[in-house]
Design a protein that fits this description.
By secondary structure, this protein is α+β, with helices and mostly antiparallel strands. It is 18% helix and 25% strand. It has a single domain, classed as 2,3-Dihydroxybiphenyl 1,2-Dioxygenase, domain 1. Strands 3-6-5-4 form a four-stranded mixed beta sheet, with helices on one face. A two-stranded antiparallel ribbon has the order 1-2. A hairpin with a 5-residue loop joins strand 1 and strand 2. The protein is globular, with a radius of gyration of 15 Å. Pfam families: Glyoxalase (PF00903).
């Protein structure tokens, strides 16, 4: 029934955000027309968390070693907006997407349905 996920990152400078995903993160993609890039993502998982406030949705990139990935991304000029913290379920930090706010980066410490992380 469900065969994929299409995530959307909104930004005030979509061109800068697209260049970041293409050039810094190295994601491959296609031009859907007029320079509108759509990127392929690695396998994904989705979790549903309870909240007492308004529901929000977040995007986290996953890696096997958050400290090594952070160091590698910093050599490419990526700005991190939070230190790495241990949340129990994983080691988490946040990085700035030029023109597109910030997103999470984490090293999972929980069981995962993904073969590379399970």
């Amino acid at each position: 029934m469900i065969e994929g996920v299409h995530a959307i990152v909104f930004g005030q400078d979509a061109e800068a955000a697209r260049a970041f995903f293409r050039d810094v993160l190295g994601l491959s993609g296609v031009d859907a027309g007029g320079g509108w890039l759509i990127f392929a993502l690695p396998p994904a998982e989705v979790a549903v968390h309870p909240t007492d406030g308004e529901p929000v949705h977040e995007l986290y990139l996953m890696c096997k070693d958050v400290h090594a990935t952070r160091a590698e991304l910093q050599t490419k000029g990526v700005e991190f907006v939070e230190p790495v913290t241990d949340q129990g379920w994983g080691l988490v930090t946040r990085l700035k997407v030029p023109g597109g706010g910030d997103i999470g980066l984490y090293e999972p410490r929980h069981p995962s349905p993904l073969p590379n992380f399970g």
